UniProtKB/TrEMBL annotation:
Transmembrane region(s): 6-22, 34-52, 58-80, 87-107, 113-134, 146-167, 173-191
Organism: Amycolatopsis cihanbeyliensis
Protein's UniProt name: AmiS/UreI family transporter
Membrane topology, as annotated: Multi-pass membrane protein
Domain of life: Bacteria
Places the protein is found: Cell membrane
Amino acid sequence: MNNVGLLYVGAVLLVNGLMLLGKVPTRSAGPLNLFVGALQCVTPTVLIIQAGGDTDAILGASGLYLFGFTYLYVGIANLANLEPEGVGWFSLFVAGAAVVYAGISFWRQGDPVFGVIWLAWALLWSLFFLVLGLGMTGLTRFTGWAVVLLSQPTCSVPAFLAMTGAYTSDGPTALLAAGIGVVLVATAALLSRERATQAATATA
């Protein structure tokens, strides 16, 4: 995945997570989604044009559209006050595709760390489907915290490492990445549960 675009995906995921937590107004998050969405559509188009028919290069660029379309969709929906179900059901498609890309990273590209990252994204987009597509609003705070906590380790950090030549991908590093991901998801669950408990106590 293009590392410049990945860097800014970390930024928009952070903002969208804060939006789900009620810290950023919906319309305020719209422009950044449009900016990053446009970047994530222009970049793979240029890469595919320059690939000269190289199927591996085209495959590598194709995944960026999943996120480009997501953020354009979210940005337009936020600014136009559209219903969220369309974004939610598209997120189900993204989650399924992310699992496929994870398998490709593990078994074809020899990049197990990015395989773990793709699985983390599959989890996040599955949560978007549950919250936005199926209306399971009880998961909103958990989803918000999961997005906030996973945004940087799955996007900005590997982007900076790749751009500085410090990115490595092997079995032990992938296991470490998976362990960090599990801890962050568990932390998101604890934070969302703690807030819910506080709200229930205040109501009582």
